[in-house]
Amino acid sequence: MSEESVPQRGGAAEVPPKGLLQQMEELMAALNADLSALDADLQAAGPGRDGAAGAVGAGDEREGR
Q: Rounded to an integer, what distance in angstroms lies between the CA atom of residue 16 and that of residue 9?
């Protein structure tokens, strides 16, 4: 087999494949950013729904005793 028929790998222009750990770190960073944005949106919405849900949950726990 000649060198011309073998595909060249590892060239300077190619990006090496990412390892599993690096992929997981990138996914976790993206998830963290999404959760931070969601938290900011919920904080900006005010205590309307969030406060009401907490009050209902606290009352249910007291009645269960």
A: 10
Q: Is the pTM of this model over 0.85?
A: no
Distance CA(44)–CA(36), nearest Å, equals: 12
Closest by Cα among 9, 28, 27 to 17? 9
DSSP for 1-63? --GGGSPP-S-TTSPPPPPHHHHHHHHHHHHHHHHHHHHHHHHHH-HHHHHHHHHHHHHHHHH
Residue 50 has, within 13 A of its CA and on its CB side, a CA count of 8
Q: Give tens-digit pLDDT for 12-52.
A: 677 778 899 999 999 999 999 999 999 999 999 987 654 55
